[in-house]
Amino acid sequence: MQKKESFLVNRLKSIGYAFKGALYLIKTEASIKIQVFIAIAVTVAGFYFNISKTEWLFQIAFIGLVMGMEGMNTAIEYISDFIHPDRHDTIGKIKDIAAGAVFITAVAATIAAMIIYIPKIVLIN
């Protein structure tokens, strides 16, 4: 009988798998590369404009939400293509819905960024 690994060892392995998946996503997906660039840009803007702790919390939450949704969208696309490699109307709808979820979070993130940064930009000029 194989010895069961400890809770801590299992958690560390899980973190390793998650990190591997995140790196794979960033290396292979154009959309996430754009989102990483935007995340870096708004982070720099956050330091430049000295945004509040609350604004940081919203900004970080939206960055995580958009990038997390992009990861889920990519996973859904991969599993859909695996299950049904040929074009299929239902698979197409599933992919469109997943992409729509990313779009919704990206629009919400954009609106939040506008609420945070437009007043700061207007005050500078």
UniProtKB/TrEMBL annotation:
Membrane topology according to the record: Multi-pass membrane protein
Keywords: ATP-binding, Cell membrane, Kinase, Lipid biosynthesis, Lipid metabolism, Membrane, Nucleotide-binding, Phospholipid biosynthesis, Phospholipid metabolism, Transferase, Transmembrane, Transmembrane helix
GO molecular function, one term: kinase activity
Coiled coil: none
Keyword Cytoplasm in annotation: no
Transmembrane domains' residue ranges: 30-50, 56-76, 97-118
Transmembrane helix recorded as keyword: yes
Location in or out of the cell: Cell membrane
Pfam families: DAGK_prokar
Family per record: Belongs to the bacterial diacylglycerol kinase family.
Protein's name according to its UniProt entry: Diacylglycerol kinase family protein
Organism whose genome encodes this protein: Psychroserpens algicola
